[in-house]
Predict the 3D structure of the following.
Amino acid sequence: MSAATASQVLKADGIRKAYRGVHALDGVSIELAAGSITGLIGPNGSGKSTLFDCICGFQARDAGSVVLDGRDLKGLSPQRIARLGLRRTFQQLRVFPELTLRQNLLAAAQAAPGFSYFRELLRTPAVRRHEREMAQRADAMLEELRLERLAGALAGGLSYGQKKLLELGMALMNEPKLLLLDEPMAGVNPTLVEGLKEELLRVNRRGVALLIVEHNLKLVFDISHSVYVLEQGRVLMHGSPAEVANDERVIEAYLGHRGPAATEQGARLD
Amino acid sequence: MTGMYVLLAQSLNIMLGYCGLLSLATPAFFGMGAYASTLLTLRLGWDSSMTLACATAVGALSGVVLGVPSLRLSRHSFVIVTLSAALLLQIVASNWIGLTRGALGIADIPTARLFGIALEGKSAWLAFMAVLSALAVAATWLIVSSRLGRAMVAVRDNEPLAIAAGIDPLKIRLFAFACSGALAGLAGACYAHYLSFIDPGIFGFSISESLLVMVILGGAGTLWGPVAGAVIFTVLPEALSMAPEVKSLIYGVLLLLIVLFMPRGMARWFGRPLAAGAGTGK
């Protein structure tokens, strides 16, 4: 691995995706530095979620390449990509409702190396040891998220905010290199935003790079090292939060699509 | 017969309860196992320890062969394909007269002979099937309480999230389908040697109907629910000496009522069901 790729956790180049002739993504290129926090903003329908899907392999790209930590992801299944250390959350909150919290975390850490059906069934010592380690890690994670009291409860019964925390914990179980967060603050009670933000910063300090799609621009500008702006399937601009927040084109893009309220939010950020 | 239904109920339970997929292929695996063991016994004179093992393997293999194309489909299409597979095999069994004697069926199948000891009489069979059922329940427990069982439930609960967590839905379902096939194949072999007669009718839908009543009323996705269902619904009709037509009618109505009014089955009455991955779940 060369020095250039070592400091770069993800490089997506010329991503294209069209639905029935409509370009959802029209040659999008982004680069993420290892251990960085990157914001991805843009009006609704600008292609943010599609870009996520194309990077993670949930949707096939029409063109373009994605390289994760020096490794080309071409042709890999989404589950394979997840095992390589690229995890994601979904815009629509997802947990396993009929598993307990602990089992949710364990299920999220399933994909261990050397996985064999027979060894699993026979419960070889290696399997038992692995399960014990994972259970410990799950318990530590629950404690970190302050959900340890609910370890044995079914995830379906959690509050929305608790599910959000659990989802984040699940994405972190296997220590990913890069985590894509699709609107982590959507639907979260304003009083909890601060807490979740601290959580994200703590995750980042552990060395996990974050790519965040979020409509709460204040938060994005607050925690990101750099910000990409998408508009109509193209990168409108890329720069530091301050540069992006004060850019005429960005303000205009938001004005055109989201009305004055959003502009206010976008324009008055420092 | 009760023991045989315990095997079959767990076969369906793994698919319906833990994977959330309605599989009507259990009679297909059942029939494959029955014919495999019968033909190996009659044509090659193998010991039943071998033919039962082969029937289990044939069931598992059928699961893989049928699963590779069908498990990629939507849930609804999967139901249709599994039903069609059973009916297709019935047609094959009826028409491949050289191998199966067609609709005449195969009679005078010798009773199971394990390592030289023949299972003679009802009590010997009862003991044998009790052991086999216990083993089947133990095997099911091994599967569903392992990481694999947890993966099955994860895929059932939320497939995109399971994929995002690195689980391969096709592989895990294929594994479940193979296990389902193995249990049904073994049950089929026992059936053939116990009744000493099989015909293409064993591929029919009526087995699926009985099984659905047993599994859903007992509690799909629980370990003991289907066992209870299997015991109740084999003992009860015999005790009441119901005609098969009446039984089929009653089961049909019952199935409708259960699905409408108590989709979680009887297991709900006995506290929380044993969830998958309970081995580490606490």
